[in-house]
TrEMBL record, chain A:
Keywords: 4Fe-4S, Gluconeogenesis, Iron, Iron-sulfur, Lyase, Metal-binding. Pathway: Carbohydrate biosynthesis; gluconeogenesis. It comes from Paenibacillus donghaensis. It comes from the Bacteria. This is L-serine dehydratase. Signal peptide: none annotated. Its EC number is 4.3.1.17. Belongs to the iron-sulfur dependent L-serine dehydratase family. The gene is sdaAA. It holds the Pfam family SDH_alpha.
TrEMBL record, chain B:
This is L-serine deaminase. The gene is sdaAB. It holds the Pfam family SDH_beta. Coiled coil: none annotated. SUPFAM superfamilies: ACT-like, Serine metabolism enzymes domain. Residues 150-222 form the ACT domain. Keywords: 4Fe-4S, Gluconeogenesis, Iron, Iron-sulfur, Lyase, Metal-binding. It comes from Paenibacillus donghaensis. It catalyses: L-serine = pyruvate + NH4(+). GO terms for molecular function: 4 iron, 4 sulfur cluster binding; L-serine ammonia-lyase activity; metal ion binding. It comes from the Bacteria. Pathway: Carbohydrate biosynthesis; gluconeogenesis. GO terms for biological process: gluconeogenesis. Belongs to the iron-sulfur dependent L-serine dehydratase family. InterPro entries: ACT-like_dom_sf (IPR045865), ACT_dom (IPR002912), ASB_dom_sf (IPR029009), Fe-S_L-Ser (IPR051318), Fe-S_L-Ser_bsu (IPR004643), Ser_deHydtase_bsu (IPR005131).
């Protein structure tokens, strides 16, 4: 790839007169040696899987194998339409969809890791709810996935995207940044604005630990996907309104690396601390062990 | 750069819940199946570290066995793999390993094939995001990532074997991206691993197998998502 940082990405987009998604498609095709059409088709298939996961999570039983989680997406969906939600509207929809995909994941359903399985709800949640709202075509969404991928590529190579390495800030945080930047572009923002959205979003997740109860991708991972979708919408709105990430986004990514590297091991997906080691978290873990033996 | 392209960020398509504990495990199982070259009759699965602690909750057991059935990471049959393997007559046992192991997510597989004495011991590690490394095959040190189509050649450690192998690759216009050789002892049995840019053709594999001192040739290709579902002669 011809870019290693978000600022290089924005400059390159300007030089070539392309959006982030279009640029990433060109770069990807050059890297793989496959045609842009082939690469686009693969991503289009992935978007199909995301849609299917949202549909399943909103309509089918998503009780996980452990029995700990499931059906929260449908609870939120029903509440969104039957009551007067605090959030509601497009944000409530994005939240429900993100929960849906994350629950499908927890129940061993088919998903796309974006960038990981633990954070797989955020991008589909944001993308599908906005597609329905704004009437965008599928191919437009697929170009948005390339934009999200470009942002994730920079974050992953300059910091990290997995909870085991950098805490949940790396996992859910990266997905929020990717969704925020991509949505900014889809809504007509410039590459520079999209880059600001990434920085704004990442600032809000710095320090978030990875503390899955029982080591499973369920508690608190699923609800963090729901919250993450809402944060991404907020970051995109701020960027589109002209709010800038005063600390440049590339520097925020470096801070995430610093914070994640300093995180004790117990807060990096080991279930050795945080929510996993609360009295209830320990009891759940014990119950799971008893069930196993 | 640790991550090379857009699909290492968006993707893989997989069955949940964990890219390291489920998708990675499925890929290790599938690599083992392809190294063995057939559906195993029996599989002894030993989990170490985090795999041992959480394998049931993450479906790591189902993912490994699904891989042994040659399922890709997004095959919808993965959650039911234990039952499907039993139907196919595969005997399965799971153990929690002790002692030293190379990575927090490690699994060792001991597989029995159909033919008398057909047996494989393989150790794999899941390093995150669905990425894997096979680090040991029957006591040979290897580094097989499954990122590229990979050819495994078992042969005797005689002078010139490698030259004849690379000759075959050159004449077939197959570019080698990475290559390693490990041998048990001087003039003893050896394993050469070749990562290629393009999938090896059946003709290439035959040509390699026909070389003097070569005892077997196997292809590992983990990049054909949903191949198993499209029914290319896989069982069950």
């Amino acid at each position: 790839m011809n870019f290693q940082t978000l600022s290089q990405l924005a400059v390159l987009c300007e030089e070539r007169g392309l959006g982030i998604g279009a640029l990433m498609l060109e770069e990807q095709s050059a890297e793989s040696g496959r045609s842009a059409a082939q690469e686009f088709a693969t991503m289009r298939e992935y978007y199909g899987v995301m849609k299917e996961a949202v549909h399943r999570g909103m309509n089918e039983d998503t009780t996980s194998r452990s029995g700990l989680t499931g059906l929260d997406a449908q609870r939120v969906g029903a509440y969104n339409t039957s009551a007067e939600p605090c959030l509601g509207g497009p944000a409530g929809q994005a939240m429900a969809y993100a929960l849906a995909v994350s629950e499908v994941n927890a129940s061993m359903g088919r998903i796309i890791a974006t960038p990981t399985a633990g954070s797989c709800g955020i991008i589909p949640g944001v993308f599908l709810s906005c597609q329905e709202r704004f009437g965008w075509a599928d191919d437009y969404m697929v170009s948005g996935l390339f934009a999200a991928g470009a942002i994730g590529y920079v974050i992953a190579n300059n910091s990290f995207v997995s909870g085991a390495e950098g805490g949940c800030q790396a996992e859910v945080g990266s997905a929020i940044g990717m969704a925020a930047g991509a949505l900014t572009e889809l809504r007509g923002g410039t590459p520079a604005q999209a880059v600001h959205a990434v920085g704004l979003a990442l600032k809000n997740t710095l320090g978030l630990i990875c503390d899955p109860v029982g080591g499973l991708v369920e508690i608190p991972c699923i609800v963090r996907n729901g919250f993450g979708a809402v944060t991404a919408l907020a970051a995109a709105d701020m960027a589109l309104a002209g709010v800038r990430s005063v600390i440049p986004s590339d520097e925020v990514i470096k801070v995430m690396l610093e914070v994640g590297s300093a995180m004790p091991e117990k807060h990096r997906e080991t279930a050795g601390g945080g929510l996993a080691q609360t009295p209830t978290g320990r009891r759940i873990m014990q119950d799971l062990r008893n069930k196993k033996s | 750069m640790r991550f090379k392209d857009v699909f290492s960020i968006i993707g893989p398509a997989m069955v949940g819940p964990s890219s390291s504990h489920t998708a990675g495990a499925a890929r290790i199982g599938r690599a083992a199946r392809q190294v063995l070259g057939e559906l195993p009759l029996a599989a002894e699965v030993t989990f170490f570290g985090s795999f041992a602690a959480t394998y049931q909750g993450h479906g790591t057991d189902r993912a490994i066995i699904g891989g042994l059935l040659d399922y890709a990471t997004d095959d919808h049959r993965l959650p039911d793999s234990l039952e499907l393997a039993a139907e196919a007559g595969m005997e399965i046992s799971f153990r929690q390993g002790s002692g030293l192991f190379p990575h927090p997510n490690t699994v060792r597989l001991q597989l029995d094939g159909r033919e008398e004495g057909s047996r494989l011991t393989l150790t794999g590690i899941s390093i995150g995001g669905g990425n894997i490394e096979i680090v040991d095959i029957d006591g040979f040190a290897v580094k097989l990532t499954g990122m590229y189509p990979t050819v495994l050649i078992r042969h005797m450690d005689y002078l010139g074997v490698l030259a004849s192998v690379t000759d075959v690759m050159r004449s077939g216009a197959f570019n080698i991206g990475h290559m390693s050789l490990d041998r048990k002892n001087r003039s003893g049995s050896a394993l050469t691993v070749l990562e290629l840019d393009e999938p090896a053709t059946p003709e290439l594999l035959e040509e390699l197998a026909a070389l003097p001192a070569v005892t077997s040739v196997k292809l590992v290709n983990l990049n054909d998502s949903k191949q198993a579902e499209k029914g290319k002669g896989n069982t069950p």
